[in-house]
Each structure stands twice: as C-alpha cells, then as structure tokens.
Design brief:
Layout (H helix, E strand, L loop, with lengths): L24 H7 L2 H4 L3 H17 L5 H20 L11 H13 L12 H37 L4 E6 L2 E7 H25 L2 E2 L15 H7 L4 E2 L3 H6 L2 H27 L7 E2 L18 H24 L13 H25 L1 E2 L1 H9 L5 H12 L3 H18 L8 H7 L13 H7 L8 H12 L3
Parallel strand pairs: 3-4
Antiparallel strand pairs: 1-2, 5-6
The structure holds arginine.
Length: 467
C-alpha cells in the first residue's frame, strides 16, 4: 500500500484540512497505536461492514457505495490475513489504516463509511468485541481446567492426604476433596466471566464522537448484526468508559491468583521432601548442571504470570482514574494491558490444565504424611466429647496431653497403649482406636461439603452436571 513516505512532513490525509504540516517524528512515535491495535483488525472490519450495511438500509449511503465498501473491506481482510497488508504508523491506528486502504481500493465511496460514526465509538466497539471473544475463550479454558480436576478428584475421592493450615499438618483430608476446592474456585472465576459477558453485551457503535448523531441511524440493527444484546443507552458513557476492560482484568487477576496458589502447591508437592506428586516430563525441565533435578518450571511461570496480570489491572485502573468524560487519548493505553493479560491468562490456564491432567499422584506418600504430625488429634478430642461426654475444651486438654506423650515417645497417637491413654483419662476405652486412623478420620467428616469420600463424590456429581 502506498505509504506516501515522501509526504512524512505533509498534513495527515485523514484530517489534512485543518493542518498545515504533519506530525513531528516523536509525536508519531507517541501517538501511533498501530503496532498493537492491529490485533483488532477483524473486529474493525466486521464493525465497519455492519455500519455500512445499516447506513445503506437507512438510505444514508447508496446501495452501490455500500457494496463497494463491503467488497473493499473483504479484500482488506484477506490482505491482512495473508500478510500482504502494509501497516503504516503514519496512519496511527487500525481504523485509519483500514480506511486509507479502502480509499486506495475503491476511491471516493470509501469516504462515506465514516458517516455517523467516530473513531471514539469505533474503538469502543472493536475493543468490546475483542474482549467479549476473549471472555468466551476464557470460559472454555476454565471449563477444561475444571474437567481435568473433576477427573483427578474422582480417581482420588478416597486418597488420604494431610490437610494443612499455616502449612502445618492439620487434619487428614482426601486428595479428591483438595482438588474439588480448586473446582469451586475456578467455577467462581467462570461465573464471573459469564457475568462480565452479560454486562458488556451492548453495542457502542453509533454513539459517534460523544453526542450521538443527527443521521437517522438504526443502532438496534448494528447491535443485532454484531451479536450484541442491545445498543448502549448513553452516548457519553459509551465512548468514556473502559470498565469492561477493567472487569476483564479484575477477573483475570483473581483467576491468576487462584492459579498461583495451585502453582505454589504443585511446587511444594513435587519436592522430594513432600513427594506427593510427580510432574510429567512434558511439564518440567532438567538442570544444566545437576543431573538429578526435575524442575517445576511451568508451575513457577504460572505463579509468576500473576505479577504481570495484577500489574495490568493496576495500570489500567490508574490510567482511567480521574479522566474527565468523554474520550481522552489516555484511553489508547487500555489495549496493551488487556492483550498482555489475556495472553498470560490463556497460557497459564492451559499449562495448569496440562499439569493437572498429567501429574502422577503418589497416594502412598500422601497417606504416610497424613498419618504423621498427629493429624487425628481432633478425632480423639471429638471422640472424648461424643463417647465420654467431656466438654470440648476439656477434651482438647486431654488430647493435648496424649499428643505430648506421643511426641515424647516418638510415636503416633494410634501407637499409644490403652493403659497410657487411660492414665491420662480413665474413661477412655479401646474403641478409641477406631477413630485414630486417617481413613476413619476422613470417613467421619460427613457434614455437607466435608471431606468424607461419599460427600466428595456428591460434590463431584453436582459439578459434573454443571460442567
Ligand atoms: N487509537 C485510538 C485509541 O485507541 C482510537 C480512538 C482515537 N480517537 C480520537 N479521538 N483520537 O483510543
């Protein structure tokens, strides 16, 4: 495409009327967004086709001009997709790159496309379409991650592992139950995604620069053609706000935070000291110097991506804070943050889905760890309440003494003799040993949402019906 580089210092061909000379090189450098907003080419062309079609339908432009415009836009789409299109920084952004090329292809009819619209509603449209599609992709990706967890949870509904608080052994749980905790988190992330799609499902095109237009446009028609539920209701708001982008980034930041906690657990679980899981070769790397090592790099990178995503959210919040209505060029800085966060989130979810699917769960190691650290102490205290009738605080005290004795002897609670336990509280009978195993402990946690395998199976079934 003719870039007209000989005209670098002449006035811009899009609004040359008012300008005697072109932009300074630095002005062009700070002003141009084409390097990143070319990502919006498909949305830009789709929006323009819907707009031109509506203009013709409303007799604002002729059917012949509309046909030329649509044909030209189709040509541009294939030029961009085949790599033949030459983007020009002098034309600032995707909107003007497309329009200038259209003029080169079809002549004066191209000049009619921008009737009753502005780049302000155009960019709001393109970006909204892009974010909406990205949210739809995120919804699918989260569904795949949830499915991977449901499979592992089902396999391990009764695999016992230590549950932690403060990363100290707390009570035995099942690995299936732990997996289902993540299903709940990613399930909420997905419902936030669905709500966000609903919030933003309004078409901006036709708000024009900020005040609407005097042309008899049909905004319901363009909204429908572009797959939106309805048009936006206030032209000033339409070109001013980027809360749909902020909502995407907030959702991404929360999901990334969930992912980073899982990543951290994977890092911990895969250490030789824990040994709860083994990562597949496909999701780990070796060391260039230490031959024995298998590093959880993918998990570490997922953990780190959270930093970028959170950074993008803060960056855009800061850009938007204090902007007067309506459009200001500050808002051009919205796209890179969202593009970068979207790419990071997509990668992080995909990598995590792969890791969860592929990892080997070492049930023997989990069970051995579940039995150590006096994980069934609460079961002993509960038993004293239930069977001996002690108040819980007294039962807590008796159990504390039993733990101290076991610690002193270097054994587990279940390894103390009945005589030793009776020396602490004479009402204890040998029935107590039934609750001191880790299996008995998890099986007893039958409260709704508890870790008993039967309860975990119920939650899996609930999610299967909704995934
Ligand atoms: N490239 C601009 C952006 O991303 C498009 C809108 C420009 N509007 C304007 N009035 N200068 O925000």
């Amino acid at each position: 495409m003719a870039d007209g580089s000989s005209e670098t210092k002449s006035s811009n061909q899009m609004w040359g009327g008012r300008f005697a000379s072109g932009p300074d090189a630095i002005m062009e450098e700070i002003n141009a967004s084409i390097d990143f907003d070319k990502k919006l080419y498909a949305q830009d062309i789709r929006g323009s086709i819907a707009h031109a079609t509506m203009l013709a339908h409303q007799d604002i432009i002729s059917a012949e001009d509309k046909d030329k415009i649509v044909h030209g836009l189709d040509t541009i789409l294939s030029e961009i997709e085949s790599g033949a299109f030459e983007f020009s920084r002098r034309l600032e952004d995707i909107h003007m790159n497309v329009e200038a090329r259209l003029a080169a292809l079809i002549g004066p009819a191209a000049g009619r496309l921008h009737t009753a619209r502005s780049r302000n509603d155009q960019v709001a449209l393109d970006f909204r379409l892009w974010v909406k599609e990205e949210l739809q992709k995120t919804e699918k990706a989260l569904t795949a991650l949830i499915a991977a967890f449901l499979d592992r949870a089902e396999e391990h509904a009764d695999t016992v592992m230590p549950g932690f608080t403060h990363l100290q052994t707390a009570q035995p749980v099942t690995f299936g139950h732990h997996c289902m905790a993540y299903v709940e988190m990613f399930g909420r992330d997905r419902s936030r995604v669905r709500h966000a799609i609903e919030h933003m499902d309004e078409s901006p095109i036709g708000a024009a620069a900020l005040a609407g237009t005097g042309f008899p446009i049909d905004r319901h028609m363009t909204a429908k053609a572009l797959g939106f539920r309805e048009p936006t209701r206030n032209s000033i708001d339409t070109v001013s706000d980027r809360d749909f982008a902020l909502e995407f980034l907030s959702i991404a930041a929360i999901a990334a935070t969930h992912l980073s906690r899982l990543a951290e657990e994977i890092v911990i679980w895969s250490t030789p000291q824990f040994g709860f899981i083994r990562l597949s070769d496909a999701f780990s790397t070796g060391s260039s110097i230490m031959p024995q090592k298998k590093n959880p790099d993918a998990a570490e990178l997922v953990r780190a991506k959270t930093g970028r995503i959170n950074g993008s959210l803060i960056a855009l919040l800061t850009v938007m804070k204090g902007l007067p209505l309506a459009y200001s060029k500050d808002m051009q800085e919205d796209k890179e943050q969202v593009f970068d966060a979207a790419e990071s989130l997509e990668l992080a979810i995909a990598a995590m889905t792969g890791m969860v699917r592929d990892m080997t769960v070492r049930a023997d190691r989990m069970k051995a760890a579940a039995g150590s650290g006096y994980a069934t102490a609460t079961d002993l205290a509960d038993w004293l309440v239930r069977e001996v009738g002690l108040p819980f605080r007294d039962a807590h005290h008796v159990t504390g003494r039993a733990v101290a004795l076991a610690e002193q002897k270097g054994c587990d609670l279940a390894e103390l003799s009945l005589a030793e336990l009776q020396a602490i509280n004479p009402a204890i009978t040998d029935k107590v040993f039934d609750v001191l195993t880790v299996e008995a402990s998890v099986a007893s946690r039958t409260s709704f949402g508890g870790t008993a395998p039967a309860e975990v199976q119920k939650q899996i079934a609930w999610w299967r019906a909704r995934n």
